[in-house]
Give the backbone structure.
Amino acid sequence: MSKLPSKLPPMSAVRVFEAAARHQSFTRAAEELGMTQAAVSYQIKLLEDRVGAPLFIRLPRQVTLTAKGRQLAPAVTEAFEALRNAFAGVEEMVQTVLSITTLSTFASNWLVPRLGRFRQLHPNIAVQVSVSTEIIEFAHSEFDIGIRSGTGDWPGLEAHVLFPNQFMPVCSPALVRDVELRDPVDLLSLPLISPSDPWWRDWFSAAGVPNVDLSRHPDNSLGVQQFEGMAAIAGQGVALINPFFFPEDLASGRLVKPFDLMATTDRSYWLVYPKARRRSAKIEAFRDWVLSEVAGDSERTSPAA
Amino acid sequence: MSKLPSKLPPMSAVRVFEAAARHQSFTRAAEELGMTQAAVSYQIKLLEDRVGAPLFIRLPRQVTLTAKGRQLAPAVTEAFEALRNAFAGVEEMVQTVLSITTLSTFASNWLVPRLGRFRQLHPNIAVQVSVSTEIIEFAHSEFDIGIRSGTGDWPGLEAHVLFPNQFMPVCSPALVRDVELRDPVDLLSLPLISPSDPWWRDWFSAAGVPNVDLSRHPDNSLGVQQFEGMAAIAGQGVALINPFFFPEDLASGRLVKPFDLMATTDRSYWLVYPKARRRSAKIEAFRDWVLSEVAGDSERTSPAA
DNA sequence: GGCTGGCATAAGTCAGCCTTATGGATCGAC
DNA sequence: GTCGATCCATAAGGCTGACTTATGCCAGCC
């Protein structure tokens, strides 16, 4: 592939040489590198042995580059400058770009509408949102933060609970205007959205209607809560949704709750990130912001209920 | 001078990253670098911690660069390539350029006339000859080899004796054609070249003429044996020279020895170089060549004498 | 002549790099 | 489906070798 790679000398020595050549002084190079003059002398000698020729001429109270040293110095300085730039660029990217993998409905019905506020708080952080229905392993990806549903036991991940994964039937007020709903079982007379969703059974169960038969209902499954909510608003039927995702629609009355009964699960929505990166400023900023937003949600909904 | 130098990550880790990025494989990078796969994994993780973001995505049986890794890799590879080139250039210079500091007469009357043969033997070594009357410290210079006169006790230097520092009066045959020289003291009737040279007293001493008074002779000192020999050939007087430097002139009769008496000294001509560099191929080559040439000289002169 | 500034050298210590060993995960073959 | 091969991660431990401290040397400079 390439002409014999001609092994590079130890990089630590090269780095010391670069500083010493720039300063034409071992002592000042040592200061810059935060080590002693003796260490610089040691490394230079090492490199000279490696190269097979002196790189500095030792004059009484100063050092000068030899011809070989002069040939080497500019190229080395240039290479290190290039490295510094490259790492500075990545460093900036690391600090300013925050990438999130999130569940679809959380993104559309919770995160995206509020992102404007985060951008105002942290104008120098660019948020990249990636939507996925699967849980993405951090080891197999390059996301900074994830929003996922589960029980919070992910090894190696720091997890902050956001809100419970719970469900309640909702529908458009028009759909139930002329219907008398005294008992949960009455809901079965209305069209259900995504009736194949297993949570329906759980909700009826919690409502005292076990072993409900939903096979009769046409399976117009939408799969994504956001769409189910939209369908409900459009009056197409009763959807089982997490009220956290539709605060506006519930507050404005676009969606109504025929029964104020929540089916709870053992799962919640979580904000997670690798434990090792918990000190990252952008991660801290985003986490704190999300948690404060969630706290605001609770304040707004809980006392009102 | 430059914008905050933003400390570079440990170079050893960067080097490992470079190889791993090129191969898209930790195992193959380890092979290239001559270390174990575990060491590569360790260094990569180190760099990722330092940078604050993953650089590789760990897929089942391979690794891929993340966006940050992709941003970093080309720049790093380029920088290392530049370093490799720079060091290769110096390496070549080290191997192919041999610089010598030598005494003037040795250069003109011994070395230069024979250098053609050395070049034939080693066409890939370029010899740079620098003439100096002072002995140059290797620590304060960048010479590979030195030719100097002395007793051979230079600490840190490998020293090979070439021939003794000895003297004999010579002159043009014309100068003595009509002169009867029975006794060394008769030389005093002829013009002496560089009579202020202290070796004259030593030679007369060795010839059984102690405390000779040379103050009468005009002090037309030339200082350099080469010039003294040339003056003698031109018939300007009797010169005290080292016959090693004038083999041709003595053989051809352009110079004659009025008395076959050599004044010896405790000094010799030496070929020296730093002990630490005795393994250098070009130094070995030159040293061996010089010594073989000197051996040839002795063969040619000694049996004849 | 002391004093200062700069580099070299010796000795000793300790961090951290690398190795060995092992485990987990996936892919392919049979 | 099981077994083996491949590749990376991780833990534990050893050992190198990069630093530090201390000292010496040399040359200018007051």
Observations:
- The two ends of chain A are 71 Å apart (CA to CA).
- Chain A has three domains: 11-88, 95-163+267-301, 165-265.
- Residues 25-27, 37-38, 40-42, 45, 58-63 of chain A lie near DNA strand C (CB under 10 Å from a C1').
- Chain A is about 45% helix and 20% strand.
